[in-house]
Amino acid sequence: MMKRMTLLAKKEGSATSDFRAYWAGPHAQLALGMEGIAKYNHNRVDKVLWASGGRPVFNVDGVVELYFEDAEAMRLAQGSDVGKKFIPADEPVFLKGWTLCVVDTQGDDPGEALVKVLILFHAQADAREALWVDLQRAADAIGVQVALNWTASTAKRERLWAEPSPPTGFVAAWFQSVAKAHEAFEPSSTLRDVVEKHTSDGAAYLIDQLRIK
After folding, report:
1. pLDDT digits (tens, 9 = 90+) for 197-212
2. Of 33, 70, 82, 172, whose CB is crowded by the most CB atoms within 10 A?
């Protein structure tokens, strides 16, 4: 399975409600015209739970997750008229920023109605395996599920702003409640300790997830 995670920053001056409505309405319906999409999620940012420097370095109002069966399916989708022409033409209607990350994933989406948090970060390439081992240990200790998405390649749109330094990766964590999600990023938290140990510029976002397909 191939996976794309794209950081979106809403158009300046637009309301969050308008951004989400257009993204989930006309734009999502357009995106569904691409052949080969296996799964399609909107991760809508509700709140910043924690940032390593006190303020997130990433400008993100939502993260698109698009799954394809394989690299060829993704290539064909991106090369179609919808993927290379109609979607890029539609994005400036509601977006200021667009930063694409094709990721390698360790761990699985539980597929349940749990509270989701995405942690975006920068890290050295050699930190990946140690981060994954420690993440699993911390997750087991506090009873949460985690997945690690490591950026393999990035892209940007000519007409839109892009992150000057895209995230090295994304940790997804699923909690039983919003309160548990907040608790996980308190100063004494095991999960927060792991992220701080292995990464820099980390920020944890409480997500309102919308499953499109």
Report:
1. 999 999 999 999 999 9
2. 172
Q: How far apart, in whole angstroms, are the C-alpha atoms of residue 206 and residue 182?
A: 9
Tens of pLDDT, residues 160-204: 999 999 999 999 999 999 999 999 999 989 999 999 999 999 999
Helix (H) or strand (E) holding 87: helix 87-90
- Domains of the chain in start order, with CATH, are 2-211 (3.30.70.100)
Whats the size of the chain, residue-wise?
213
Contact 119, 185 (CB under 8 A): no
> Is residue 194 within 8 Å of residue 136, measured between CB atoms?
no
Amino acid identity for residue 195 in this structure: V
DSSP state letters, 57-81: SS--SEEEEEEESSHHHHHHHHHSH
Question: 113: Cβ–Cβ under 8 A, 6 or more apart, which residues?
Answer: none
What's the distance, CA 62 to chain centroid? 7
Which amino acid appears at position 133 of this protein? V
